[in-house]
Known about the structure:
Strand content: under 5%
Shape: rod-shaped
Helix content: over 70%
Number of strands: 2
Order of helices and strands: EEHH
Distance between the termini: 171 Å
Amino acid sequence: MATNTTTGTQVPSKGGFPAFKVETFGSQLLWLAIAFGLLYYLMSRHIAPRIGGILEERSGRIAADLAAAQSMKAEADAATASYEKSLAEARANAQAIAAETRAKINGASDSERKSLEAKLAADLSSSEAKIAEARTAAMGNVRSIAVDATHAIVERLAGAKAEAARVEAAVDAALKH
Length: 177
């Protein structure tokens, strides 16, 4: 049972959800309008500006972070380019040093080879002269040995001594051929 507020008597209540009762629609709409207006005022004056400020601050921080990242990327690209340039210069320098060293070594080996060839040519010339002298001396000894051997052979075969001038002339004639 419900109590009538104007008369104070008890009135049997109709069942159902109070929000759907037609008698209370007016007051419910009034309180709905007041609550909506109050919430709208709070949202538009206090909460929405704070949220907007937070979003702007966040957007600004993100933009600053992106700009810093872009700046760091540009610095990294510049450092990479500088590193690659230095590396290329170092390679070129190393190749130049290697070529210079190779040229010095080739020049030194060529000069050493030429001096060695000159020394060998001088030694060869000296050796050939010694060989020619030895041959001449040997040929002189061969002549005297041939003359002595011829004297001995003629003496043994003929039983008499041969003339020295004739034996020497025969050996000289035989050596010329």
